[in-house]
Amino acid sequence: MALPDLIEITPLNPAPLEAKVTMPGSKSITNRALVLAALADGEVELTGALWSEDTRIMVDALKTLGFEITVRTDATEVGNRVITVKGLGGRIPNGGTTEAPLEIHVGNAGTAARFLAAMVCLGDGAVRLHGVERMHERPQKELFRALRRLGYQVDSHNDKLPVTIHGGGPREASCTVSLKASSQFATALLQAAPRGQWYVDLAGANLDEAPYVRMTQEMMTAFPHGGGTFAIEPDASSGSFFWGINLFQETVEVANWPLTGWQIDAQFPRFLSMPAEISRATDLGDSIMTAIVLAPLVGRPISFTELGRLRVQECERVQALRTELTKCGATVTEAGDTLHLEPGELHGAEIETYRDHRMAMCFATLGLKVPGMKLRDPACVKKTFPNFFQKLAAATPEGVGAIIRDADGKTLTGDALNTE
Question: Cα dihedral sign for 372, 378, 384, 386?
Fold first, then answer.
């Protein structure tokens, strides 16, 4: 039984929850680790790896490229897997021809689309990357330009997906890449650079303002490139939905909170005080969406700045947040790449999720406080957190005991909250 197309979230009882909820593994770290493992010399075991739509797309892509990968259940977290990758030291086994390139579908997984684009250059054949319609709209130009500067043939009529990339193997070369459109471009190049013998110039980037690139660099330092085991920490962006409940109800804690500093969203608990201004560039990553949706509950005006990256992700998130919060009675002003929210009474609404996992999870969290919150296409959470609604509905302390109903008012439990 799969999750229905429309669900309603019921507000929590006002009593303290005393919940301590575990999170699945970090999507950002899992997909980086899968690429690094494939490029390693020898077998790498990834523990705590997220098993979601985006990471399954990456695993399937690597298998299509010829890598030997085994996947086992993780007894400690149902949303995770133990994934073993046999690294080939930079060799890419499979590729197609110019006339019949090897086809790889990347869905709407930006990490897969960008990371694989650089990685397949290390092979000898042609690979065609394509995805869903939204993925074909998302920016790729800076990455493709960088790959061409390195000497590789990249065929795309508009510098977006679909694209055919012709591998040429390692070659000593250099390129410059801007982080303006996406930090994933830099990560894609940095991960493949040691095997490709490339020098990558980050165009004067301030890494204090590029936390996802910093994550990549620190991961590459810690990774067992000669084979071994690598532990993936819980996803801090996913944890923000549960930490956020503390803004209107005590007491929810996320277990095993990451302490490496690799994930900028591990700072989210510090921002529960909701300062007057919060930046997407320096304060929070994707979890800024959680803060935006919950901001009207705080009781004072808050501005969220430097949100430009949100416009080119799974949906046009700035516009989507403004539209759906306005439906709920919020006073939202959009000025450039800033959203300004005023305090005020909210009411329920039927929320369009735009097939965006984070839109669904943000407004589900709001629905734990505001009555009448209904979500369309809630199964889109499978992109990064397939068991999100099961976690939400689980009894304390493992969950918060949320009541979730279908369009007919029937309470959903167990497999009925499954996204598949």
Answer: positive
